[in-house]
Records
---
Amino acid sequence: MSDTQPDAPSLYAAREPVFPKKVYGRFRNLKWLIMIFTLGVYYLTPWIRWDRGPNLPDQAVLVDLANRRFFFFWIEIWPHEFYFIAGLLVMAGLGLFLFTSALGRVWCGYACPQTVWTDLFILVERWVEGDRNARLRLHRQKKLDFRKVRLRMTKWIAWLLIAVATGGAWVFYFTDAPTLLIDLFTLNAHPVAYTTIAVLTGTTFFFGGFAREQICIYACPWPRIQAAMMDEDTLVVGYREWRGEPRKNSDEVKAGETQGDCIDCMACVNVCPVGIDIRDGQQLECITCALCIDACDDIMEKIGKPRGLIDYMALTDEQNERAGNAPKPIIRHILRPRTILYTALWSLVGFGLLFALFIRSDIDMTVAPVRNPTFVTLSDGTIRNVYEVRLRNKHGEDRPFRMTVSGDPAIRIQLEGTPYGAVTVPADSTMLQRVYLMAPPSSEPAHSERTEVRLWVEDTSNGERAYQDTIFNGRDN
Amino acid sequence: MAKQPRKKQEVETTGHEWDGIEEYNNPLPRWWLWVFYATIVWAIWYTIAYPAWPMISGATEGYKGWSTRANVAQELAEAEAANAEINDRLASVELASISDDPELAGYARSAGAAVFKTFCAQCHGSGAAGAKGYPNLQDDAWLWGGTIDDIHYTVSHGIRNEDDPDARYSEMPAFGELLEPEQIEQVVNYVMSLSPTYEPQDASLVTEGETVFLDQCAVCHGDDGTGDIYQGAPNLTDAIWLYGGDYETLMETVTNSRFGVMPPMGGANLSEAEIRAVATYVHQLGGGE
């Protein structure tokens, strides 16, 4: 912290453009792989087909908002099963806790869409305009000559194409992709599709091309939350200052002076996508992308020093290494009670969801007893209770459902609108059916306050069945 | 992102101090200030554009002429227009065939439930369970008939009202002026004996009551007491009592008579489609014939 006194406090700081230099190394390779994988999943998933039989969509992953259905390969989620989504969100939350407490901002550095798309945009920028030095020259060139215009336009058009593809891929998740693609080109698609594509194109273009690290630094709340989840064993990208300092480049070295391993070559600063100097210590801007590790390792190898001047390390390592001890192995930073607890909780929710998924039946109902009035006396003195039953048919064909009741032999069942105890529920839909339970005047349930009964629904075509427990209210109520 | 040098500034303070913590008197960021001015400009425009300033009778209307009432009217008109086609269909098909068309029946049930809660629930209750003097519409006993056509007629014209000449009409005499008190007691005992929940009491009163019943009551309620839906005469042999089946209530009913009135819902009150919707709704509550 300096004590210099400027004339007037500046209330606004202009963005300093960042020109990340190309880098090679194992973390860069890992990031390429993750980028190919995540972008591949994002762009290609809507095109995977999955045969579900007649009357149901054959798109493997489909969020059908109009019909309120979510399809994921062999899984079909209806609105009343939204707890699966809630469960997945809980898992996502716990997963982020786990990764953040173990590996710090690993999400930010490798998997966040902002990082992945920015990386892709920088890649395009490098292809078109050249590496850091060429881009810097182009940036500083005041004159707007043909070459500058051509390079800028090429870059922006490439970005725009990526942005359109990004926005375009999004809408395919919400309707049949091949149909929509044709509709989009023949201008027959719904305005919502075009609007969504336009908005996502705009945000992708702006966030990836221009806003970049400013999104992470100023707009995103997640880094601030993550900071609260890290502890002294969390792995972050750090600089071994005790090994590197005093930093000197070859011009500054005078005979007889001590010199650290850092040769002040600025390789780590030049590759940084958020424009910081990692040697200043942990900073809120750092997304732990580890590119500075690759850059520094490369230099260390060239000058014949051990790798790892900049490295993944934890706060506890610093005290350890300053005291001259060996650092804890990485695995012991990762495996500790906190991360094991998160893993356990994460797996618990995961197994719970899997279990819930496999005990789901294809036939389903909910029973809402009508309690206004609690019971009706019929002309012969029979006591009748009314239930509003939602019958769900998750198949692509109409299914005959028969309803029965068990719990008390005196209670009979009748379905509104049909003299038989059976109805046909149309394909892939819910049917609201009024169901009557009746107890003869002199029977036990007619006189008791409450009788527990079980309503059964059975698919008469294949014998599959399900039940719901409910209450029959008698006269003494 | 280059780091700004961290400056130790000599900024004047506001003079406020809490436990040694002082408050700087820093200027607002420029963008913040401009946003603040912009909100002032916007607020002035807003009070001109929309209803705002209170006057003696009402408020300024604003040049855009916006009002919540107009919004509601417009949304109602839109809803009406959106339902126009199915309402026309509902109003024109055979009543008995509504239940054969799942789409129409579903619409009629939902629309009918809304109509019922607005126009019928005051007397018949929100669950159609009725009350003393107001029939329960969920059971299987119907004073004037429980087919969809009967219900439709009753809803359209009402019962014993003076507004609709086609209203269902019948009148039970007040037997307090026609019979001796002991005859009334006898016939009440007989009527009670017709009910399935009857617990035998004075058998001689019942026997004498039967004579009185056949003379005075059977013309409307039938020789066997099962009533007559063409006159709205209740079935006296079932387990359902409109006003109550105990001795005191029946004495009162026979002595003073009853005269339940239902207003007509046709004409100015409800459209034909709405009447048909509510008739469909009532018909499927559990007692429809």
---
Amino acid sequence: MSGAEFVPLSLTPLLIGIFAAIACALPGNFLVLRRQALIGDAISHVVLPGIVVAFLTTGVIATAPMMLGAAGAAVVAVILIEAIRRLGRIEPGAAMGVVFTAMFAAGVLLLEQSDTSGVHLDVEHALFGNLESLIWLDATGWSSLFDPAALAGLPPELPRIALALLGVALFIGFFWRPLKISTFDEGFAATQGIATGALGIALVIVSAVAAVAAFDAVGSIIVIAMFICPPAAARMMTNRLERQIGWSIFFATIAAILGYVLAGYGPLWLGFGNSVSAAGMIATVAGLILAVAAVFGPCRARIGAPQGG
Amino acid sequence: MSPVELVAEDGMIAPGAAPGALDIRGLTVSYGERPAVFSVDASFAEGAMTAIVGPNGAGKSTLLKAVLGIVKPLSGAVSVFGKPFAATRSRVAYVPQRASVDWDFPTRVIDVVLMGLYRELGLLSRLRASDKARAEKCLERVGMSDFAGRQIGQLSGGQQQRVFLARALAQGADLYLLDEPFAGVDAATEKAIIDVLKSLKAQGKTVIAVHHDLSTVAEYFDEIFMINVRKMAHGPVREAFTAESLQNTYGGRLAATQIDQLTLSAG
Amino acid sequence: MLLDALTLQLGYNATLVAVGATLLGISAGVTGTFLFLRKRALVSDAISHATLPGVGLAFIVMVLLGGDGRSLPGLMLGSALSAWVGLLAVQWLTERTRLAEDAAIGSVLSVFFGFGIVLLTVIQNMSSGRQAGLEGFLLGSTAGMLFSEAAIIAAGGALSLALVLLLRRPMTMVAFDPGFSASAGIDLRRIDLAMMGLVLAVTVVGLKIVGLILIVALLIIPPVTARFWTNRTDGVVALSGLIGGVSGYVGAAISASAPALPTGPIIVLVAFALFALSLLGSPQRGVLAAWTRHRAFQRRVHLRQGLLALASGQPIYEKLTLRLLQRADLVRPDGVATEAGQARAEKALLDETRWDVLRRSASLEGTAAFYDGLTRIEDVVTPDQLDEIDAAIAAGAEASS
């Protein structure tokens, strides 16, 4: 394919897909290891009410209020889950189920009730995202990458997700040691002066930021695939956290590229006329990668510590 | 947030008395509405090697966790070397129960030991060769040098316990708090651990360990702290480890004949 | 309008939907209780999301066979099959790999959902122009529902409710004590399988009304709410069914009473409102009750500690303890015990001595486990036993003097 076709139509969705996948996979590694994979589930569901409330209060679709709304909703959800778990002595899974379904339902209701016809916000879009539409019409070819006028026409989702990825990466890098120590041994971490509770909340907020930035591209539910599948597959490839992070980035990238290409061209190769959902295909590929890793990964099996001896 | 904020600012530690390695005043910790530890006062002298004993559910681990601020006490105060724990963190090393973590975590033995250097390394400073050498030396002290590159899930229970001890050694602390270090370990590990603890004592460090095997208390430790929700006895093993204190602590759960044997071995 | 809806006067379809939602709510509440008691509430999230590819595939197959593709029984069958595959995938990942159940649930639900979305776009292309309307399964859509569909849902709700009631005994036993049930000859695997089958049935029946994303709410919120009010398993089951039924009925009625009130979210929000009320107001486990109880408990601990310190002549360091003692007129402002304080302190000390005797007593050792510093000794021994203990104390005092 020529640059004249690739750059305007495929480059930006592809990059957005890759960035979104990596931005979610990075915190996902810690969520999976902390047995909080379903916090990812909860976060991605409450992104919707967060964004709707932000939109209803500000009246515009803008990055900053959306991010704030989603992060706020994630924090509210986590606090509610903790409160229900402790006060009602309810197991965490059930507490999560109560909170995120109720908040999601509230989001859907608010969305149905409010007039969002003029803006780019509807339930289906929130659920599936619309990666294919994030094209760069001002581009004419590879040279546009150096053309300020064309660059000004980049879809705003691209710099947004790039910034989110940068933020996520900086957070993980900066707090690498405390994150690793507290994920492995929370009690010990606390004795070392690490504020384990605050760090846990920070991880949730960072995940929420990644989720809301990825939300545009892939919708709220497929985000979960990006949180969980690449890290889960990566865990089966290595026994070292540093390498697991590397593998998860690799798998996230592969899933994004392959998913996008298969969605766009797969049906054509099979003789059908139209493409299928890129976000759905990315999740499907991520699932296939996980399946392959689960069957062939060198570190796929649990090695329980032998007792006694 | 931490229990120690209740402490010393208002001079709660008895004025005039020289602070020990660990002083506890009126400590009550409760899970739900049942105190696990009730109104415990204790002073652990510097350089002592103390066993904390008591029946299951008697609050042994809870006491350690409250000292370390891992659980929040309902009332009471703790001071470490005369100061709140938050101010003396780097002088305290903690060896949690082996079962308290997920050994499936993707990391190597040496990385776990290096976690003991966290307070020195901070967030971003690079690991130097000297840090690695120090961690390796700690592994050597517990006889685990050959396992440095091993994934922690591949270790036996005893080996995991030694890795935890090596991490505590890497902290270079003055007070060592160990939660059931001998639980479910093999004889070789038990010996390796007690050798290390005795060498710590020889260096003038303070060691406090939750211990469950009454038959080895007299051999391993010089002080005993007996707890069953309340403090039942505390002092040199020879004086405090008596038939009466055993019965107070364990009740009829310990048959009279066993008590005779135990106190004989202590005397 | 709402009154009309609540009294089922908005026409056949609205009535059938309300009846279906009520039956669905009851059976979801009852089934969900067993799932909740087995601590596997969120497995239902994987099951429900995994229905989507089945809906899509069933549509494609029916169209290829020359049918309409929108036939509700066909779509329900397809969704049940793919949900079953999803459930097996969760189990396989948990048992055969090092993934924990939460990661297995999360990956299965998102991947199946993603694949389902792919199939939906395939269908959009296939039916070029003709609206398949499968999106309605995501969040439920009762608008424009056919009479036959509403009838199927009502029948499905009734059937799954009958099945739950039939299986409730063994499921209660398994949920309460799996080990004992196995020894009593109950086949754990089959009961678990039946439970998951019921979850699946509820999910499939609920697809059209509540949608696959929110159906888990009907399985989870009612039992969690019921748990605030009772400690008995039977009670939780019954109450959870009631809460589910009320949510379904009221939710469907509210939704029918005005436009732009989607049925699924409204039902979920009604259930959540009941939950929130319970969380705040339940006399045993509610937030308000827990908070006041905790304060009272903290005061008891401090008072008791203060009395013991007074009795043994130790200084009291904690300000809260001193303040409480003063307020109860047990110590004077200068820290010296009042007469009443002296008496209470002596009583506290006597009780501690009694506990010491009790612990050493061969016949009373069992009661020693009640000791937690607060439990009154009078509450765990009979007056005769207490006399025995006091006699032992007196004897001990004589012996030592």
---
Amino acid sequence: MESILNIRNVSKIYQSAGRELTVLDQINFSIEAGSTVAITGPSGSGKTTLLGLCAGLDRASSGTVELKGIALEKLNEDERAAVRNQYVGFIFQNFQLLPTLTALENVMVPLELRGAKNIKAQAMELLEKVGLADRSHHYPVQLSGGEQQRVSLARAFSNQPAILFADEPTGNLDAETSEKVIKLLFDLNKDAGTTLVIVTHDLELAARTTRTIKIKGGIIISDENPSYA
Amino acid sequence: MPNTSLKQSIKFSWLFKMAWRDSRKNRSRLLLFISSIVLGIAALVAVYSFKDNLQRDIDAQAKELTGADLVLDSRKGVSKAMQKMLDSLGDERSQEKTFASMIYFQSDGGSRLVQMKALEGKYPYYGSIETTPVAAADHFQEDRNALVDQTLMLQFNAKVGDSVKVGDLNFKISGALNKAPGQNGIAASVAPIVYIPLKYLAQTNLIKTGSRINNKFYFRYDDPSGVDEWVRKNEPKLEKEGFDADTVESRKEQTGRSFKDVNRFLALSGFIALLLGCVGVGSAIHVYIQEKLSAIATLRCLGLKSRHAFFIYLIQIFFIGLIAAILGAILGTGIQFLLPLVLKDFLPVEITMQVSWPAVGQGILLGLIISILFALPSLLSVRKISPLNAIRISFEKTGGKRDLLTWIVYLLMAAFIVGFTHLQMKTWAQTLAFAISIGVAFVLLIILSKLLMFLVKTLLPKSSSYLWRQGFANLYRPNNQTLMLTVSIGLSTAFICTLFFVQGILMSRVTLSSGSNQPNMVMFDIQNTQKERIDSLTKSFNLPLMNQVPVITMRIEEINGKKASADTNNRRAYRNEIRATYQDTLTAAEKIVDGKWIGKIKPNEKVYISLDQRYAQQINVGLNDKILFNVQGMMIPTVVGSLREVNWSRMQTNFRVVFPAGVLEEAPQFHVLMTRVPTSELSAKFQGEVVKNFPNVSVIDLDLILKLLDELLDKIGFVIQFMAGFSMVTGWIVLISAVLTSKNQRIKESILLRTIGASRKQILAINAIEYFFLGAFAAGAGLILALGGSWALAKFSFDAAFVPPFLPTTGLFVSVVLIVVITGVLSTRSILNQPPLKILRTEG
């Protein structure tokens, strides 16, 4: 299968208190289109940094990140933003809904950024899928944590992304709500045929993916069911 | 690489839609942030509108102000050649002699010093002398009639038909004078006007040698287009003859010019209010953008380009700024209607207030520019917000290093302040002094706040109680508000206090003291022959002879051998008539600062005179310079022997030129006598006797003048306070909004502390300690800056001494600290009143 994400010799070094801090060291892997991948590891292992690099939120100190064949390190911030809008969806641990926008408007934003047509109907359809059609005009503050994450899921899928990055998607939810949200995430993903990359501590959640990459101290310590090594 | 497919087609309309959505729930708060510029714009629009209306009315009414196409006036006599010229001018002519004189009301027995105008001809040709009855102005010259100022008639219970004595002659009051051409309220109350026909002036016997008479000649032209050109051509000749020329055009310029200073002061007060507004906008938008960090990062994750994020917030600021500017313009247009009420006594024209659209437009534009310009540094940082903030809240704040664009914006801000200050100040020296002072204050406050953080961090005793440690630690921990609050509170306090101090300096400068042993009545124009008799009359009323001096009128003929025509750089010295005296000893108000005082000389000795040091500076002479005086035809050569410092505010006659005794005793002269009259009844009785026995002697009732002056100063004081009030209110708004906006930094911490069990009292105490220390430090710094600034202004600008008033200074300091602490604690209290979870969810 075609690989959608290629990470080659990627390192990330921060300057901290005058010293160099290597957060990621020579990371290499590829992800096939349509696959589901979990990146796991203890706190401070570098997994969120890796997600940031994969999604084009940050630049690697060295190495290359290729998303849909586009070398992200060669793009400027605005070009990377365009890549994100076109190919990437996000789900955040703290939902990151825009507080001044209604649920419907939150879902519409990625489509509006694309200049798409008939977006309201598409957004409503997604809200229906996540079971929140009747809450479409509610603001985030009027929704529970689980509901907010469901709106976040609808938003993530609204621009029909080629790849979806989820950063601890259930980190702020109770077990019961987590289960519902995860089920919804995998169902939507299956319908849309999107590549799913989840950063998580939750081994149960990781087990649901087809592949798990384990990181510790900035290096990959295991890669189960890898398609590239 | 499929880069071409990455082009986003974001419509501008979507940015507007997004700006609208993003501003939801924040609009009222944004408006509060920007409200600080509403008052500044209001003040400026009011001042500009007033200026426009005044200029328009001056233009429209200049003819009525002048009353003729050409006015020539002189305090000197008229030479034959000049008389020939005067007779050849204009198609219609009038003549007026103006002088100070006493009038005596026969019915009431009261007397009062007035401005006597003896008129011949049909002046004014434009406008009118307003009288009751109306016809009196046209017919009073036909007989021995007088037009008497209406307030004066009320004061002395006089009616039309009553009689007034002017000098030796009685006149019938044929009308009450409501308004003379070009007269304003204040001038009328200080020196009320009385018109009499010129043809009777000689019979009054008021005109004696040395009398101070202003001769005015009014001309009307059928075709006045060449008048200004004629004046330009004949200026040297007129000057030589001691004549001043006034035309409609020159009056327009003059009147406009005399109000320029007033307008400049008003505009500067408005500008200070606006500058405070800028500080308010800057700090408020900074906080607003900080709060939007997470939303912006999320939008960036979703693919929003940095410049589009910038535009979303720029659009918000544009519209909120526009609303604030429009509100300010509406408020200012309303306030402009108040300004003429406050200033009407000083205005020579009838003000017809209208909405001045250029002023409104200027105000709105200015409000908009300021809102955007001072929001730009924070707005530009939006472009630097990394999308990583969405997954790592603590990743970074709004971008690290400032880029070129930000520096350009800082430059533009500085250029704006300098440019706008220059528009108000007109001179570059003052502009730079003002702008540099602001810059220095700003930098000093930044340095001080950094120093404060360093000192607190280093010196905070580890053993102090938790509440104190936490309160103080808030001053330097991450997310601290020390820098922002120190700068905004410090600058607001500095502005508020400086205005307060400057107001005090200005007021004390113009306040005259009238102590119980100071003279309160002045008699002048006392002839040599009348001196002894007036002394006896005064003594017979048991009144003291407090200050008795001779006055001699003279002109400078030559300085160091140079005549006026050869000394083109120093024309002023030769032009004005000088009133000098002679005395053998210095008075208590005089102090020799240079040279040697010589009080008496013998005949044929060199005449060493003494000059007031400021006057000497003005006419460019120093010690040992030779001055030739023309004392009514007699040339007296003198040498500058000493320079004196004169305390002009002492209630006594002071002179710029003092001769030694032994020179001018035989010159034509009059005498001035000062006395103190204990009661107003005795004052009226004494004045009556003086006028009856010595009709040419003028009496000034200083109590009356001081009362009028007091009223005048009250009005000036009110204008100053009125405009300074704008800046002060804006300062308070900025201060309060700075504290209110900073509360957001503390909300989460307070709630977290509350969640883990801190009592309400403990949290309030922590916040109170932080705000108290911040308030005290910032207010103290602002106060010190204000004291320094006021001292410098007093010394270099107003030439006055500055003694900071202890109580008001302490009061201002305590008020600022209290406002900071109360606003800070109240904002925390409102949060503590709600369940922690609710706040956490709202904020999360």
